Hints:
Bound molecules: sulfopyruvate, magnesium ion
Oligomer: single chain
Distance between the termini: 66 Å
Amino acid sequence: MEAHNGLSARIVEEAGFKGIWGSGLSISAALGVRDNNEASWTQVLEVLEFMSDATTVPILMDGDTGFGNFNNMRRLVRKLEQRGVGGVAIEDKLFPKTNSFIGEGQPLADIEEFSGKIKAGKDSQSDDDFCIIARVEALIAGWGMAEALKRAEAYRQAGADAILIHSKKSVADEILTFTKEWAGRSPLVIVPTTYAGTPTQTFRDAGISLMIWANHNLRSIIGAMRETTRHIFEAESVAALEGNIPSVKDVFAIQNSQELKEAEDRYLPKPVDNGQGLILAASRGGALEHFTKDQPKSMLDIRGRPLLRRLVDTMRNGGVRDVCVVRGYRKDAIDFPDIRTVDNDRYEETGEAFSLAQADLPESGALTVAYGDILFSPSVVEKLNASPHDVTLVVDADYGKNPTHGDGRQVDLVGVSRPHGVDFLTDEEDAPATVTALGDAAGDAENKGEWIGLVRFSQAGTAALRQAIEGAGADGSLEKARIPDLLARLREQGIEIGVVYISGGWLDVDDAFDLAAARNFV
Ligand code: SPV
Ligand code: MG
C-alpha cells in the first residue's frame, strides 16, 4: 500500500499491510512537485527515512530510473540500507523519468545498460534481504509482449529479485498473458491502477506475488483536505467539522505519545515528593498596621516578590510541592495559581490552631506547617525532610543573636535534649535532638532554642496532630490555641518531638524593623 510520509506509512502499517510502497508519484505530489525527478533523490530519501522510522514493516522505494547510471544506483542502494528501507524498484526508462500514465511511446533504457544497473545494485547491498525489483515498461511504451518478456528475462539474469510488469490498460489481459508466459521464473509484481476492476483473487490464482496499490492514500487526502479546507473557508468555522474528522487525541495516538510518557517515567528524574505544605497566613499582622491596609502581612513585598510567594517557592524547592495556604484577613489578596487555599473567616477572634484546623490534613504522606510570615532557606526544608521523628521542629540555637528580634516579640522557646553543634559531623542519627520542654518550662532548660514557626509531621505525626486538634476542639480550647499548645498535646500523647537545629539564617516579619531586615535578608 502506498504511503508518502511518516504519517501515511504508519496508517498503512496500522491497517495491517505487510509492506509499504514509497510511491514516486505520491511523494513528489506530497512535496508539491511533479513526478519527473524534480525532487532530488536525497530529498526523497529524507522522506523515506521518516517513513522507515515511523514503521516496522518493509518499505519498497519507487526508485524511478535509479537517479542516474549504475554508479548512482550503487550509492542509492547503500543509502537505502542505511535508512532501513527494504528494497527498491527501478524502471527501464530514461532520467528524468515521466510517470507511466503520461503520454505515449516513452523511450526505454538500453537493456544492457539497465541490466548493469541492476547488477551494480545487487553487488552493493550488504543485507541479503534487500530487494531490487526490475520494472518493465515495455507494455506501457507500446513495445509489445515479446519485448517485455525479453527485457524481464535479461533483468532476471542480471540478478533482479522480482519483475514488476506494468500495464496501463483498463483490463488485465496483457498482465495475465505475461504472467502465463513468464511461468514463475521469478516473483512478479503488478500495479493494478488502471485495471482495478479485476478481482485480486484472479491475480492470486495466476501466481502474482505482490500487488501495489500505488497512489490511493495520496488521492484520498487530496479529497479530504479539499473538502475540509473549502468548508472552513466558506463557513469561517470549524464547529461543524468536529466529530467528522479524526480527533486531536487520535493524532497523539498515531504519534505514539504514550510511548514518550512511559519513557519519561523511565529516564527522567522523579520529582521529589516531600508531602504537602500548609502555610498559616490568616492574620493581618498587628504591628504592621500601616502596611497592611489592603493585604495581610504575608503578602508584603520583599524586594519585588511577596513574602508568601517566597515562602511557597522555598517549600516547593524543598520538594513540598502541594502547598495549601490558610487565608483570613484580606483573603482576596492571596491568589497564586499554584497553591490551594482554605479560609479561616473567623481570623479575628481565633488563633493559629483554629486556622490549622480549617485545612484538610493529608491522609498519606508528610505535612510541613509554616507560619506565613517567615523566611528561611530551602536547605532547612531538606534537613527537616531527613528527620527520623514523626514530629520535628526547626529550632534556632542562636536566637539571641537574631537581628530581627524586636523588643517584646514573642519567642517560642524550646528545651532540647542536647546543645547545638557538638561537632559538625554530628548527625541526627548519632545524637538525635529532641524536645524536653515547651512554653514557660523551656526558659529553664539547659539547652534551648527558638522554634522558628516551621514544623514537619510524618504521616503518623499528622494522624496524631489530627487527634490533638480533635482533643482541643472537644475541650473548647481550639479557638484560641497556638501551635505550641497542640505540640504540648502531642507530647502528652507520648510522641517524641525531634529538633532540627539551625543557627540563624531565617527571619520572621512582625514589625517594620523586621520588614526592613527582611528586605536586606534576601
Ligand atoms: C508510483 O506510484 O509512483 C508508480 C506507480 O511509479 S505508477 O504511478 O503506476 O507508475
Ligand atoms: Mg513512480
